[in-house]
Amino acid sequence: MFETIKDQIGDVKKIIFVTGAGISQESGIPTFRGKDGLWRNYDAMKLATIDAFYENPKLVWEWYNERRKNVFAAHPNQGHKAIAELEKYAKVMVLTQNIDGLHQKAGSTEVLELHGSIIKIKCSVCDFRDEILTEFSEIPPLCNCGNMLRPDVVWFGEPLPQNVWQKAIVSASECDLMVIVGTSLVVSPANTLPIYAKQNNALLIEINPERTEMSSDMDLTIRSTSALALPKFISVLKEN
Ligand code: APR
């Protein structure tokens, strides 16, 4: 799988993983656009936007409550664990579009959540925010200030947290290897991260069972699932 680039990855120092829903698929969390995609049953624009939240907060919260239940029951898979283990051998940072916290659960310590976290909740008006691991009995849940609470995630049309995005761009621009795992690379600005890496002459590797819009820009594409490919990739890196 990785023989062709074995020597090229020999002396990489800074490795960035850009991950998407596909890396959590083998933990039982459906992707958005893949064949088992979440969006197949729902219209994303009716559930993951600020307008949808104010138009029908109950529906949006029903969807997020269901997803929260799924996430709380999910465990990191071999792909998450391989990335976490790699921290013993190289400088690793994970730039994830996922909101499920599985990279952190697997032991990764350098994780930027580009689209926020479904475990974190914030008030839609005041500055209250907290990690809440229990289910809400009544929805939409209310803040002590009386306004609706919402998942601390980035909805379509909302900007990414500026401090997080700035750090992500800097890391992508400084790495010498970027591994893009389980993402269709259709959502911006996350899908610009490989461009920043390429501008720094980083090696680009894509791990995805399906082709993506940027597959032809990659130095190596591994048509495999992440739970199968990542442990193999890590063992090649460890040999160097
Ligand atoms: N291993 C690796 N990749 C996989 C696996 C797997 N087991 N299963 C599916 N995939 C791939 C699919 O082929 C697809 O290319 O994962 C990708 C998932 O793509 P999307 O469903 O579009 O998810 P993602 O790229 O993370 O979406 C980006 O869009 O909906 C918004 O905010 C949401 O963060 C999300 C963003």
TrEMBL record:
Binding site for NAD(+): Q97, N98, I99, D100, G182, T183, S184, N208, P209, E210, S226
Chief localisation class: cytoplasm
Keyword Aminoacyl-tRNA synthetase carried by entry: no
Keyword line: Cytoplasm, Metal-binding, NAD, Transcription, Transcription regulation, Transferase, Zinc
Transmembrane annotation, as ranges: none
Co-factor binding details: Binds 1 zinc ion per subunit.
One of the record's GO molecular function terms: protein-succinyllysine desuccinylase activity
CC cofactor: Zn(2+)
Pfam family for this entry, one: SIR2
Any single GO CC term annotated in Swiss-Prot or TrEMBL for this entry: cytoplasm
EC primary class: transferase
Residues reported in the UniProt entry to bind substrate: Y64, R67
Residues that bind Zn(2+): C123, C126, C143, C145
Enzyme Commission no: 2.3.1.286
Domain Deacetylase sirtuin-type: 1-240
Subcellular location: Cytoplasm
Function: NAD-dependent lysine deacetylase and desuccinylase that specifically removes acetyl and succinyl groups on target proteins. Modulates the activities of several proteins which are inactive in their acylated form. Deacetylates the N-terminal lysine residue of Alba, the major archaeal chromatin protein and that, in turn, increases Alba's DNA binding affinity, thereby repressing transcription.
Stated family: Belongs to the sirtuin family. Class III subfamily.
HAMAP family: Sirtuin_ClassIII
Protein's UniProt name: NAD-dependent protein deacylase
UniProt source species: Candidatus Nitrosopumilus salarius BD31
